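Please predict the structure of the following assembly.
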Amino acid sequence: QKEVEQDPGPLSVPEGAIVSLNCTYSNSAFQYFMWYRQYSRKGPELLMYTYSSGNKEDGRFTAQVDKSSKYISLFIRDSQPSDSATYLCSQTLTGGGNKLTFGTGTQLKVEL
Amino acid sequence: EADIYQTPRYLVIGTGKKITLECSQTMGHDKMYWYQQDPGMELHLIHYSYGVNSTEKGDLSSESTVSRIRTEHFPLTLESARPSHTSQYLCASGGLAATQFFGPGTRLTVL
């Protein structure tokens, strides 16, 4: 069983839709949770990070962490064609040297 | 502007050649990392460093080696490239609260 599971998609939505991207993880010791956006043939770009459980909002993006169910989500409101990319979730332990464990990523396509 | 740089962006090379992938950052970070990513697959950590003269192997076994002589520079070397080394190599530096910032990557093809 992989430590981090993520539906690879592709997920196709119309412009303006609310998008929900999700990850599940198995290691209950994970404390830091991050979402990265990766455009084709580019390096990942940090979008959001949260510590422990709870919600965090930044513009059109909201990250949610539910440690009791080992489930993390990224919501994108008013999705735009420029949001079309692969979204990677990642986690790490406190004191783990910041070694991140990544999911395979979910490919999102926002269509006009 | 603080950033992280990788060169070359693309490299096509023959089997048996020695190659060095360059990574530099101007973010002032002590921690640096190398990941390998194949299409549709997750990133795998192959090397990391906590500072000058510190290097460790990551979770994915790799025939590559790294060095950290200067804080801002973290090159990766393959002594003898093989087709199985064909992949995308991503360098990152570690910021606050476990965040990592990635370079644009080097796409390596070994013929």
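The mean pLDDT of chain A is 91. The first strand of chain A starts at residue 4 and ends at 6.
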